[in-house]
Fold this sequence. Notes:
single chain, 372 residues, alpha/beta, Aspartate Aminotransferase, domain 1, Aspartate Aminotransferase, domain 2, 2 domains, four-stranded antiparallel beta sheet, 12 helices
Amino acid sequence: xxxxxxxxxxxxxxxPSPVAPRILDALGRPTVGHLDPxxxxxxxxxxxxxxxxxxxxxxxxxxVSGTGSAAMEASLANVLEPGDTAIVGVNGVFGGRLAEMxxxxxxxxxxxxxxxxxxxxxxxxxxxxxxxxxxxxxxxxLAETSTGVEQPLAEIGAAVAGTETLFVVDAVTAVxxxxxxxxxxxxxxxxxxxxxxxxxxxxxxxxxxxERAMERIRTRxxxxxxxxxxxxxxxxxxxxxxxxxxxxxxxxxxxxxEGLTAIREEGLxxxxxxxxxxGARLQGALVxxxxxxxxxxxxxxxxxxxxxxxxxxxxxxxxxxxxxxHGIEVGGGLGSAKGKLWRIGLMGHGATDESVDRLLAAVxxxxxxxxx
Length: 372
């Protein structure tokens, strides 16, 4: 009865994003076994599609059975051992989460912090790396979902490449919406989530490991603290052995396969251009209505806009009205930004002019500016 009562929402928050009918249809395809040759062929094709969107040739590229935070944990747990040093850029919730995970794994964590809404300056990350030349990892968030900031990577990647340190990048809100360019930026480990710009329901988390990262995994002196996320074990299932590890979420993999097929059909550059155009249109329209953009100018994500409301307007009640009266979900602030801003996602299937039109009409209604 509860399912029958579900009302559709236009998902314009920080995730999940709207799911295209063709992807929902893929979820309903017949379930087969996770060792069925048909499914293994689909998994292989998913790996190729993920290499395409990540911009990499890394062999070990696959979807973790879990959401983005599971891939974050897999990325760190496989390469960190107790006593290792981890350098982490923190300018929002998810940089903070990386640091906390590394601490729980027994790492000595060195944070490089920046004000929320601003990038972590690459030269600061590089200076800290020089102070800790034997750091095991250096991690940053490319697309900080809590603030809408896009972190520059190229300079950091070039500096890390000549060291023993592995470059780890959170690309959860980036993949499929803005370039990641894993190989060009010399990234060793990057991870994403299906529910953002890939336009697939939540439940899988794409991740890619370089050969340098895999060598670290092979030569570590203690076992990975997570059996479930141990890449050395997962490699047995993903490789030629096809050795049982766990039961993959079959139908979710179908959905991801269909989402990656849709990206191939649209073309990555066209997809990036669509997100850029739609995001710029929304941001300009919000400023016209008295909103102030929160993220640093020149480093604003087009697919995730963080905006402070017009003076004197409470974000919570207005956001609730958007949902109840207009069926539109947007996100509120997290951490130090809680109660101060909206986070509006225009990702994947939701990055359209129709989404912007409907949202702006609803904003005008709840702010009382319609017809102004």
